[in-house]
Amino acid sequence: MAFENDWFVEFRISDTTFLSIADTSRATIRDVRGEGVTLTWRVANLVRAREALGERGVAISPIKTRWQAQVCYFHDPEGHRIELWSENT
Hints:
7 strands; 2,3-Dihydroxybiphenyl 1,2-Dioxygenase, domain 1; globular; mainly beta
């Protein structure tokens, strides 16, 4: 386990892969009508990842700071939220 509190747990799958589970009632960003999952990827260059998705026509949120990280969000065709994040530098 990489991190845990009373509403969020993060498991380290490998050196670069994590699986996080959160209580949606406590999360700051809502999931897909409370019925879906949020997939989260840590990326080396969040600005470039966001630009690449935008160039492909993906609607993606502005970059924001949350939990001492830079994050942005988009949704898959079924409405599941996808989060990209990188550490603040």
